[in-house]
Predict the structure of GH29D-like beta-sandwich domain-containing protein.
Amino acid sequence: MEFWTNIPYKTNQSMKYIVVIVLVVCVYSCKKNNKENEFTKTYVQKEEIQLVNPKIIVNNVIIDTSSSIIASLPLDQTVIRYTTDGNEPTETSEKYTDIISISESGTYTFKAFHPEFKSSGSEQVSFFKKGIDVDIFSLITPLNKQYPGQGESTLVNHKKGTLNFRDGEWIGVTEPFIAIIDFKTKIFLDSVDIGYLVNTDAWIFPIQNVSIAFSENGADFTDIEPQEALEKIKTGSTKLDNIHIPVAKKLKKLKIKISNVTSIPKWHQGKGNPAWLFMDEWIFNAKISN
């Protein structure tokens, strides 16, 4: 009887030891796994986090004598790089180290890099040389009461609008826009730069079409076919842009007609409606002609 009564006792003791061992192993494994998971999670999070875009501060994008760019992103080990050829910056592009002085027209693209995070998106800013002054700017199309800008001078006041289409530097229309520019004296017009805004969320689309005619005597006009292909937006977008139109003619007057998107595309919530067209500065790159 003593033999049989001792078996349960020894078995219980053994089971207790086994349970304790199993618990210890489980706790150790869990702690180890948690540490590994925490390390992996931290590593993955850092690899997946993208840097915010660098902040770009510009005096004026229309250059009279000079302008400047300041780029910043206050995070240790961050390097900002930039290009001037329109391409996306890479880790081998020019390194931004100090304020950049600008005296010529061109496009600057900035991007931030960090050893532990994904590189930022890019920020782009274009500079334009101040064009020749206009003597008389006559609107054939009346201004829209909702977005009149600062009147007809909005397009020739040597100021560029921002991404905020309510900043007062934009003329907004929903129908073709026609203006006649009188330079008073004869000039040789090299080209025209027409600034516009894209903000598809606000139903603002790119320029659909441009028609230009010039007059050498101030009365008779001859058409010029624009050579630049116009942008077609296929997805949502918000940006400042510009159309550069070569002219290379002696003239006294210029007639410009800008057409908007007459029907918003099917992918957009406003499909079928006429789109807004927002324009700011028109720059006339010219010299006085004898």
User: Anything to note?
Assistant: Residues 1-7, 38-44 have pLDDT under 50 and may be disordered. The two ends are 132 Å apart (CA to CA).
